Amino acid sequence: MATKLLLLPPPPPAGQKTIMLQLFVILTSLISSALRQVSFTSTFEPDSPLTADSFLPSLQQILQCLEVPHRPQYSGGIILNPELNRGSAGWSGFGTAQIQHRVSSKTGNHFIVSHSRTQPHHSASQKVYLLKDRLYAFSAWLQVSQGNVAVTAGFKTSDGGFIPAGAVIAEPGCWSMLKGGITVNTSGEAELYFHTRNSTADLWVDSVSLQPFTHQEWRSHQDRSIEQTRKEKVRIQVVDKQGNPLPNANVTINQNGLSFPFGCAINKNILSNAAYKNWFTSRGFRVTTFENEMKWYTNEPSRGREDYSAADALLWFAQQHNVAVRGHNVLWDDPNYQQGWLNSLSPRDFGTAVRTRINSVVSRYKGKLVAWDVVNENLHFSALENKLGSYASALAYNLAYKIDWETPLFMNEYNTIEESGDPASTPVKYLQKLRGIRRFSNNNWIKFGIGLESHFGVPNLAYMRASIDTLAAANVPIWLTEVDVKSSPDQASYLEQVLREGHAHPKVSGMVVWAAWSPQGCYRMCLTDNNFRNLPTGDVVDKLLHEWGGGREASVVGETDANGYLEASLFHGDYNVSIVHPRLGNSGLVRKVVCLKVPLEAQYGGGMIGNLEGLYGIAYNRTYSHDSVFKTVQVVEGNLYVFSGWVQVTDESREVGVVFKTNRGELIRGGRVTAKAGCWSFLKGGIFANFSGPVEILFESKNTSAEIWIENVSLHPFTMSEWRSHQDRRVATERKSKVRFQVKYKNGTSLRGAKVTLNQISPEFPFGCGMNYRILSSTGYQEWFASRFKYTTFTNEMKWYSTEKRQGQENYTTADAMMKFAKEKGISVRGHNIFWDDPKYQPGWVRDLSSEELAEAAAKRIDSVVSRYAGGQLIAWDVMNENLHFSFFEDRLGRNASAEYFLRAHQLDPNVRLFMNEYNTIEYSGDEDADPVNYRNRFEEILSYPGNQEIKAGIGVQGHFSYKQPNLAYMRSSLDILASTGIPIWLTEVSIGPGPNQAEYLEQVLREAYSHPGVEGIIMFAGPEAGGFNETTLADKDFNNTAAGDVVDKLIHEWETKPATFESDEKGFFEALLFHGDYNISVEYPDETTDPSSAFLHYKVSKDVKLQDPLSTFLIDLVQTSKGSGIVVDAVVRTSSGELHNIGKAIASNGCWSMLKGGLSPNSSGLAEVSFQSKDPTAEVWVENVALQQFTMKQWRSHQDHIIEKFGCGMNLHILSSKPYRNWFASRFKHTTFTNAMKWYSTELVQGQENYTTPDAMLRFCKKHNISIRGHNVFWDNPKCQPQWVKNLTGEELEQPRRRG
């Protein structure tokens, strides 16, 4: 039967989701990325949190008025005759205004018109009775007879006061919606009327509503909104491996921190105040804003002298604690907050300064912020516009976007939601300003955001909600950016009201509290006192953090019912789930959970698929596994295509894959996912197009009875150049760090003009190559390998069939010898492998064993090999090789064989990382056995086995690619899926099949792996021809590089920081972008009293700990004396046995500090005393900054290895006649000494007959290959090593040739 495809509106959200937990199964497979990559925009239906009658108006309704108004909200509430269907009943004229009931001849709509107005407030009115402590939601539809005029709705109270409810720009000929709200302090009668400054215009009114709510009702609405927009109901079922429900299982669900972006502003005081740091970092804030440190007047107080030191240090602090940062602000439109030098500039110079400012600050923090407030308060002020013209703000956004197109750019304004009586910044005026900026040339591509400062007095929550409803029509993220409440007895209560209202609104994407601390007090509101004890406002913030999912305690603790179910309502976010049941033991199961109400938006806006949001497809009546045609697209040869989409099935859990069918009938599989019934799963994959033409996108599942539901599909093309650019950007963010140093003395004096040289001595990222037994007998192979690699895997020498060819006769001779060589050369080794699940690769005698005999033999094997190389000799073990494709041990010993061997290996060597190692997981999309979903599921099953929870696990993907073009899009998506586990990934055996493009494809694979943040190491199964590597050969039999070898050498050098010298500025600072790794740092610093001095230290830059302090400080240890100069000072250590050890000396002087440096190697342990001595007993010895650092011999050796900068090899005359010798030498060394060719006995064998032919020829060879030479030697003082004729000369005769030379 032919497959049918339906495109339907989205189904109504299910009340609950049922998720199966089989001991080890992840509830959902979506893992959040870095905070700046997560969309903060809600993805829920725009229902008002009040009642079904509420709605969020569209931007068209707000800014483009309608021919016919909507019906009144809440049926008008307490307003009489709200739709004017009963004439003017209930309405009267206020002031001189006359009212007239009219009916539109075109639409039949009823309304009233106020005319004959002589004052702005003369209009139609209605009296109502308002109650204290009620919140009133107000709305009305208005138009005017002439012009576009601002109309305000307000209430005149019995005491003569006026309470504005909201405002709108009304137009002639169409209806505009005014939405707002009020609260009152006293009960009594009040009169509604409308105010506009144009008293000559007639004012038309229709569909008026005023609905009262108690605070309890309002809070109830907030809670319901939170349940709908911030939480999801989930239903978890715990089952055993056979699928049987497990009742009475204890389930604990912990949220891993707050999901909603909620934070607090900070300032530079936090950098020097440990108590402030501790308070801030212990709260779990997800976002922050710097109070003043990024503002222009801070960064450039005088023209041309920029200072970002405070902002840089604050950004570093936030990054170290995983707190996202909002940039505040690029420009401020208030002239009171411009620098004096700026206000005095001509318009031309002012424009130049603005451009320079935007370029400087936006470039500096590109990619490091989650938002930028580009222009601050440009509704209330116009300093930019007054100087540069009406488009100044729009131009500023345009310039910022051209520099940083990824970061959302915000307008930021006050009183838009705080004060209903401020006509300058009403929600409608905000939207009009935003629309004007958007319409500026090319600004329609900008990711805009709405920033609402939220500086409240007494909150008018009804007006606040109505204003946000209005602003939501823009369909961009809304943030409350500077929330505070003025001081009053109710300050904490009001703060809670505002924060709850913001959090409950479905269109609010984040909030920042404006409470940065300083000793002199906060801007308007503090959360703590000066000892960082919470004030009532701080208690409110802590309470809400905990309530919204940021607490440290379990979110849900419960027990499953008789059917194994547990129901819970969870905030969106990541969760850890642990399960305890008698039949499982204490599983300690910990997995991440993400709860989503609906699938996320399509990536890249759908790409080539287009925006189909709001529709989804259902494939049913399926006959074949891939029956489900979705769409046909055209692909271009040479492009990569990234695919993603959301799928679910109607029948339990099923594997669903995406397939691309060519016009030749070829099926290219692009990725798979385990889809579930009742919830959406994310399918990710991709293809490389090796042809141009149409392809059909299909979805396949082997269970043809299951319907496949599809939504938010994306297919996005990339050229190879674009793909490479993305790799380079990821390398810059994942493998490098920007490090800021300061050179200074301990007393704080900065060293200006210090020359600092950085030399990387080893990379942090492990990049290595396999080796085999041939290396033991080939010095060429040894030298080739050791000059390049510090990580290896033995290709076969540790495998069972190599170490126990006959039962009971173990032989580790070869593996031991290779381990000895690796240790001598400082090479780290991965153990490969303990077991191989392929029956072909067992020792011959193993295949014939019974199950009992196999269990006994395997136990001896694992105990023998792991114990032999335990204790830090290996960095990893491939415990089980290829157990997705094969099952030799499972077939004979049971399903848990792999899991049990992981447990035993961990018991024998608990500190080594244990890997599952498999092929075709990233290489080939058509191999379902080992695809990333199956790999992840199988490994999680192994790690969930009792006792395996503490294992240091690793994901090993072999990386054996064919000779064809690698599918980098599928490779990347597969690594993404594996990385979602949080387990380190290694490419363990990278190779490329022989072919004309082997080197190019090898480079593509290595770059893709190196750039992926989840990959923590790469080993190639490749090497020289002399090592027997005939598939991916890196060097020929003479160790000359192949094209693939050139690629490897190029990448080794590219992925390291080149030596560089920096000079410290006037404050001692310099910055450097460095690859992670170990560095030697040498410092030459000026000294006014002596010759230039120098010092040396070691430094490590890493991904996890980039800096121990915001400023890495170079310190100098010094001594001086009280009188004279040239006094020798000795440092002496006296041991407990009375022995004296002189550990160093310095010549000290009066009035300046000299450095004393030394050391000792004690031959016994115990207490010792350090003292400083001088032979002049009258001189005082001044001592400062003393250090005594102990090192193990291993650490000392490591340091020795690190500090070698120039490493070379001697050469002799035989190099002139041996091409292999020349090739071997030139491929390795850049420094040499001629062993004998320059010596006197070589160049003048007979007196007066000099011969430099040999050294001259050797010099030409060195020059050709850029090899530096040390001359060796002019004279040799050993009488045995003189030319024979020299030995017989007299002293006078000897002097003559010495002078002549």
TrEMBL record:
The keyword Cell membrane does not apply. Gene3D superfamilies: Galactose-binding domain-like, Glycosidases. PROSITE patterns: GH10_2. Keywords: Carbohydrate metabolism, Hydrolase, Polysaccharide degradation, Signal. It comes from the Eukaryota. SMART domains: Glyco_10. Residues 252-544, 752-1051, 1197-1301 form the GH10 domain. One of its GO terms (biological process) is polysaccharide catabolic process. Residues 1-36 form the signal peptide. It holds the Pfam family Glyco_hydro_10. GO terms for molecular function: endo-1,4-beta-xylanase activity. Belongs to the glycosyl hydrolase 10 (cellulase F) family. This is GH10 domain-containing protein. It comes from Linum tenue.
